[in-house]
Amino acid sequence: MTQKPLILILCTGNSCRSHLAEGILRTALGDSHRIESAGSKPTGYVHPLAIKALSEIGIDISGNRSKHLDEFLRQDVETVITVCGNADQVCPMFPGQVNRHHFPFDDPAHATGSENEQFVVFQRVRDEIRAVFGAYAAGRLDEAKAG
Length: 147
Prior knowledge:
Structural class: alpha/beta
Number of helices: 4
Strand order of the largest sheet: 2-1-3-4
Radius of gyration: 15 Å
Largest sheet: 4 strands, parallel
CATH topology: Rossmann fold
Strand content: 5-15%
Number of domains: 1
Number of strands: 4
Shape: globular
CATH superfamily: Response regulator
């Protein structure tokens, strides 16, 4: 059996953007790919407001964990997608890596104000990620059908 292609989504802290993207892309691509996220300096937790923002649209990432990109250095990573500038700068090449994309988004973890005000930022970034990664997933699925 052929191993599913691994798409690795990287950011610095692996607490917000990469997890939002991982959940959205996994949902959009279904079972055709393995989707993981990691960080160059992982915070060690998945931000509760990221979990809440995705649960609003029916995606559960409550079981996700914050991981270091080193966990994937010995794996065949087909595509690397960075979602922040810092991760793009420190991103190593992975064995078997074919594709690399950079889709930068604001870091909702830096949002200030009340929890409700912060959550509005998480919702905005989630919707931006959903638009970009939804289009990316549609392209990958079209590619697979044509291939």
